[in-house]
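Case 364 in the screening queue. Each case pairs one protein sequence with one candidate compound; here the compound is adenosine-5'-diphosphate. For every case the pipeline is the same: read the inputs, emit a complex structure as tokens, and attach any notable structural observations.

Predict complex for case 364.
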Amino acid sequence: MSAAETALKERIKELTCLYEVSSIIGNTDADLLEDTLKAITLSLNKAFKNPQKTTVSITTENVSVFSNNRTIDSSFSIQSDIKTFNDHRGQLTAYLEVSDETHNTFLPEEQLLLNNIALKIGSLLEHIEIKKNETSLRRQMQHVGRLEILGEITAGIAHEINTPLANILGFAELIKSDLKANKQSLEDVDKIIQNAIFSREVVKKLMFFSCEMPQEMKQINCVPTIKNAIKLLDATFRKEQVKYKVNIHDDEIWLRADPIQLQQIIFNLLINAIYFSPKNGLVTIEAKTTKKEIILKISDEGKGFSTDDLSKIFQPFFTTKPIGEGSGLGLSVVHGIVASHKGSIVAKNNKNKGAIFTITLPKD
Ligand SMILES: Nc1ncnc2c1ncn2[C@@H]1O[C@H](COP(=O)(O)OP(=O)(O)O)[C@@H](O)[C@H]1O
Ligand SMILES: [Mg+2]
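Case 364 output:
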């Protein structure tokens, strides 16, 4: 083999190794770090000129892995430091068996490859450390954490309940069509159907809450979106004899958001506002824009919040409505959506009377 051919062959081995190590790192499970490091030593071993006579090892304070079981008695080795955040964390070493007199050297490229892989391992360890810190930070944020864990649990429950509910609804509809003559039974079946529909809505909210619905962020003019949501509740406002006023002076306010989720925010807040409004009470919907944010305010003239309730209203299942009327999920959903848009929501008692919700959403 010519020198050029040999060099090329070595280069290909090196590139293959870099590629392999990147994919190994990409698939790392932080709990199986030792397996990852072992896989890296194996991949790197193959890239050396004399793989059969080479052993690669990675040692950090917690683990020590080798590419093979060969005893290392040679004095011949090259190594590279593994660092995270500039601190020494371990070593990547390649040993060469010196029995063969002609091949007892490493190529300069091999040292470079070693350095390169050591860097990759370092950033992998950094990444894991950052993740770990994030996790513990998250645990500290108890409130947020609770919402999250609940989300996971409810996702499972919601799925389990959805199928039997669909069956209940289906069979009830069947019975209904057989019962045309029996007025009392018809009414009873209707109750079953109404209740099943109500439960299905709860399940929908649960699924929503646990982020089962994909989010679709896009650049939107939120003025028509907001106005549409209000319009859809027009009949409800009239039925409950509640008045409303829209204070939006811009024709266009652009921001990056999921339009359906934005409607969901308005919807949930307005439904609460209507519910807690006295007869002839006024609900005010306001949207303003600053350079970087949009500010949405929804206020009513109802009873407002007690200090005790105010700290709980965003918690899932917290409701002061009578059984069967409230799921206590509306504001949790709103809170979740606002958070996923990197915004904030604050609830307060209005100066005179009633509740006021202020939502701030970044424009991009
Ligand atoms: N506009 C409001 N005025 C007074 N209290 C409110 C208002 N909106 C929400 N709340 C309080 O927050 C609770 C939780 O609201 P929500 O999460 O939407 O659940 P639900 O509407 O099912 O009760 C309500 O039961 C109520 O106590
Ligand atoms: Mg509600």
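Case 364 observations:
- The radius of gyration is 32 Å.
- The chain has three domains: 3-140, 142-209, 218-362.
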